Amino acid sequence: MNTVDRRALEQLDDEPLDEQISYYRKPFMVLWAAVQESSAELVEDYGMSPELAQLWVAERLRQVGDSLVDRLAERAAARGVSKSNVSRAAGASPTNALRRFPRLRDLDEGRTPGRTLIDDVLDSLD
After folding, report:
1. Mean pLDDT value across the chain
2. Domain interval for residue 58
């Protein structure tokens, strides 16, 4: 399966940028709408400028998104996806898997990785 995954990632990398973007255009549009909606609340509640409110919300989403990427990398590796392919999927060099995702070392050494920001966000939804 790792060979198939690697070949697929290489093919995807060779696609024109427009084709690659087509795979995440819809989720981005949803995210952009959410940033605008959430920032409007900040403008209303705190009198913040719309531009600054959008920046504030987008930065928090970036942090949570980074945490989600780390969590998904751990999940993939725990299910047998090679660290090289995990790195490739994240746009990193395959030789830098443990540098890009240091928590994978915990999995290698039989330790349970600690909580990430995405865990706190998901807990807040309960």
Report:
1. 92
2. 2-125
